[in-house]
Amino acid sequence: MVESVFPKRTSIVRRRFVTGAAALSCGAAVFPALARKATIESMVSAELPEAASSFLLNVEKIPVRVGKQHAKGVGINGSLPAPTLRWREGDTVELQVRNHLHEDTSIHWHGIRLPADMDGVPGLSFAGIPAGETFTYRFPVRQNGTYWYHSHSGGQEQAGLYGALVIDPADKPAYTADRDYVVLLSDWTNADPMDIVSNLKFDGDYYNFRQRTVGTFLHDIRKDGLMASVRDRLAWGGMNMAPTDISDVSGIIYTYLMNGRSPAKGWVGLFRPGERIRLRFINAASMTLFDVRIPGLTMQVVASDGNDVEPVPVDEFRIAPAETYDVIVQPTTDEPYTIFVQSEDRTGYARGTLATHDGLLGPIPPMDPRPLRTMADMGMGSMKNMSMTGEPKSDPMAGMDMPSHEKTTPDSQSVEQDKTVHHHAAMHDMDMSNMAGMDMGNMDMPGMSMHHSMPHEGSSSSIKEQRAVSGSPAAMPETQPAKLKTGVEVQSLAPQPQNRLGEAGDGLDGNGRRCLRYTDLRALKPWTDPREPSREIVLHLTGNMERFIWGFNGKKFSEAEPIRLMLGERVRFVLINDTMMEHPIHLHGLWSELENGQGAFQPYKHTVNVKPGERLSYLVSADTPGLWAYHCHLLYHMDTGMFRTVVVS
Amino acid sequence: MAAVHGPSSKAEPMNKATAVPYVNGIMPVMDQRIYVHALLDQFEARYSGSGGQFRYDGQAWFGSDYNKLWLKSEGTVGTNGSFGDGDHEVLYDRSISRYFDLQSGVRLDIDHGPTRAWGAIGLQGLALYFFDAEATFYFSDRGVAGRLTGSYDIFITNRLILQPQTELNFYSNSDGARGVGRGLSDIDAGLRLRYEWHRKIAPYVGITYSKMFHDNVGFRDNSDAVGSGTNFIFGIRSWF
Ligand SMILES: [Cu+2]
């Protein structure tokens, strides 16, 4: 029925899209005009589209309605979010992208290993796709799993130009499932992305209506006493920072979407009791970290950023923008289950339902309390490490709630490694001067007790990292930032950055649920490149929230040299987050092997979420030449400078 | 103000990154954009036992993260229609630290009184504990002058905000024609309670206290006197 609408040449391709579009968009609070005709049945029962290797993608303006407001978004083939694409590993895919907008567009295949000129970043890969023109992407598919694609032009990603990408494995899949659904999460706003940046430049708290008030002060006094409350206010005020700084852009203008549907409508995935359901979570939001749970069901995390991992049973996980996690759930009864996805700052949620037939709704749980930043987020270490002896705890496993993660207890190998890395280099380099006026001993910091440092420094690498930090002559060439000082582009420096890979994140640790931690991720297959890195590249994640300037090593993109890698070399990226916000850092074109203590089974990722005050590292094999983008995947952090060009030659 | 459009003159020359052969010279990220904003901090009617007046105080800027053109203007219109206390500044603004900008330029006193011109140099920014502060020195052949302003936002709720504010003016020499005394010449302090039903438009009510300090007897003291003392005020704070 639908096919006849389209020209013959593209009909096969188009039909698939309409199926996908219907699955994602029809009847949604955010719905495209073209998909509106599809029936509700096709929507709820649609799983993944068929795999294909040839696509015609029309980038176009699409009318959108959220609540009573009408707006224009950018989508593909009448669909917003853009349709789910399904490829096969081993195929060569060809994607014609036709630009029907009045401005340049581009599509970046997020997490896909491909020749640099196919990566889709204007200026780096190609010149972009001018209005009215068509660009053909063509490249072999050498991986499988869950990925996504999005525009790398202006604010188009915020405006809806993103879609899911599922690649079937050439061999048998590592995990089987009876049903397979994409769960694409995003943040929709009717506001102009350029206005959002401009507002944040004027007032970094523009979208934060959860700041501490006279009321919360009185409440804190009743709870903690007058002096402790005053001291706490003075400590934060003395830094011109606020513990309520969670998300730069909040639910005040965002509607959080699941597969394009607002919480009012919700998305529905059907199942029969006893079936194994694979849910492919993709965070396609511009600025929002999400916490995902399905009350009543345990989720087995089986893949991260497209790569299979050993199953980790969790109740909840945090997903930063651009990350993907595949989970398998197996509901045994026919009751409906709510997929509940809160924004990190708890100003809103996205929602869906797993149900045995359409129309059933599970209960919607109340949102959790919003987290507050702590001194650990300021890079001032955990309370434990702040002890006056200056010595970190000697038992690396103390304080870890291992029992709830039996499945993920580190193997003997990584436990051994732990023993070599007790001495946190940062401890010796602590700069106490930034902490003047703060009485750490008496400060009450809710949630603090949960933030134990987890000295899983990962591989033996940490010794070298320490050497790099203390500045002793290391044999290998290093790319070290000049001594960083606070200034226009650097609001704060973390005096004691911590390894926080063993924490689930602000608002999750200690909430009584099993929450996924980066240390839990263990790849099914060992690395393909067992070489030791030949050098380290240390990057501080820096910014000034008051001025809304972000960057690396105190510099915006336009002020900095590119990062140069030699083709074939293996390097370690060390990231130190000097800010009090999370930054999901994404390296295009190459894998990032997170050093999370899993030895040769460290997971491959394309986007690594760096917590506030955290120091972490990953290994990169520079095996594909070209110009690659390297950036924070919070759109407005990238846009205001947190971006580098990586040159592999 | 050529510097406004020019490249950042930080120690590092900007766009070293252009050493990379960007396709068609396209920068993948445009982080040197120009932004434009204006803030009308006070736009209010003042009432006291002796009459009423209207007062405005606003600033606008346009520019990049480091270099901006900054405009400031304030003034008072009495019930008799005379424009007093007119102060208008054009400044080049340079970001110099985490929270502070250095500003330099020209101040013109233009109102019903005689016009005066000053050179200006000062600091503006966010002092610790979130105090908004400005300290500016002015100089001319008539001597020097100084101005200190400060304000603070107390969040009663996230939308109901109590703002104490004060402005102090100092002059090294009195200027009889403009009703300016030597030393601390005048003070304008206020307590405003605003409601941000929208971030950019917030109505407020409050009280102000203002006083001119005259060290000489015999100053003309008519329109300037209106509004002196304690006033009840209402107005609207807005920005774009
Ligand atoms: Cu990307």
The percent of residues in helical segments of chain A reads: 10-25%
What percentage of residues of chain B falls in helices of 4 or more residues?
A: under 10%
- E-strand count of chain A: 31
The neighbouring-strand order within the major sheet of chain B is: 1-2-3-4-5-6-7-8-10-11-12-13
Order of helices and strands of chain B: EEEEEEEEEEEEE
Gyration radius of chain B, to the nearest Å? 20 Å
Q: What proportion strand of chain A?
A: 25-35%
Percentage of residues in strands of chain B? over 45%
Q: Please describe the biggest sheet of chain B, giving its number of strands, its sense, and whether it closes into a barrel.
A: 12 strands, antiparallel, barrel
Largest sheet of chain A: 7 strands, mixed
Low-confidence stretches of chain B: 1-18, 216-224
Q: What would you say this structure looks like, in words?
A:
- The complex is a heterodimer of chains A (649) and B (240).
- Chain A is an alpha+beta fold.
- Helix content of chain A is 13%, strand content 29%.
- In chain A, strands 20, 21, 22, 24, 26, 27 and 29 form a 7-stranded mixed sheet that branches.
- Chain B is mainly beta.
- Chain B starts with 34 loop residues before the first strand and ends with a strand.
- Chain B has a 12-stranded antiparallel beta barrel with strand order 1-2-3-4-5-6-7-8-10-11-12-13.
- Helices cover 0% and strands 60% of the residues of chain B.
- Chain B has no helices and 13 strands.
- Classes of the chains: A alpha+beta (649), B mainly beta (240).
- Bound molecules: copper (II) ion.
- The site of copper (II) ion has 5 residues of chain A, from strand 5.
From the structure above, extract its key features:
heterodimer, A: 649 residues, alpha+beta, 7-stranded mixed sheet, 6-stranded mixed sheet, B: 240 residues, mainly beta, 12-stranded antiparallel β-barrel, 13 strands, 0% helix, 60% strand, binds copper (II) ion
